[in-house]
Amino acid sequence: DPGEYRGVALRKPAATVEDAAVDEALERLRQRAARFEPVEGRPLAAHDWATVDLARQVTGAEPPAEPETHENVTIDLSAEANPPGFSEQLVGLDAGAHKVFTVHYPDGHAVKDLAGRTVEYGVTVKAIKQRVVPALDDEFAKDLGQFETLADLRARVRQDLEHEAQHEADRDVRGDLLADLAKRVPFAVPEVLVESE
Q1: What is the pLDDT of residues 54-72, one digit of tens each?
Q2: Of 30, 53, 117, 175, which one's alpha carbon is 20 to 30 angstroms from that of 158?
Q3: pLDDT digits (tens, 9 = 90+) for 21-64
Q4: Pick from 42, 195, 18: which is nearest to 125 by CA?
Q5: DSSP assignment, residue 149?
Q6: What one-character DSSP code corresponds to residue 52?
Q7: pTM above the 0.70 mark?
Q8: Which residues, at least 6 apart from 98, have a Cβ–Cβ distance to it below 8 Å?
Q9: CA–CA gap between residue 131 and residue 76 (Å, rounded)
Q10: What is the C-alpha separation between 52 and 44, in angstroms, rounded?
């Protein structure tokens, strides 16, 4: 018996969308639309992407490890996940260049097999590319398909975010209602029901 539940008071959160949220969503769209363009006439820079063939071998391993080779690997030189000091060794190399160098992994490195080890890399640069993010303008909106202007795209993004916020507000209200009704249960919930849930 839940008692008199028809007087339960619930507060539905406002489903408002700030301009900053719209700007963030548009920026995510821009980043997803980025394209890669070949770079010619200059060496690799710290913000470039490189296509390489590489060989790597852990030094000082017992028994000696076989070299591990990979072809046509794409590397973002600015990625924080790259091995420590790896990207710096590639900066300044031209397409077609080959370089052999070692990288020492710190003791606390996330990859346990490499923690505290020294790895020799042989890298051949095959191509240099740069990631180009489109400008946030009418042309960008048209490229997405169904929009004539950036204002149209912005309005649609806001509409989608408001729709999502409305659903979230509805879920919050339902959750609050269920929590209120649960407080009215005057007995311990059977363990089998808890396990089932």
Answers
A1: 999 888 767 777 788 999 9
A2: 175
A3: 999 999 999 999 999 999 999 999 999 999 999 999 888 767 77
A4: 42
A5: S
A6: E
A7: no
A8: 122, 123, 124, 125
A9: 9
A10: 12
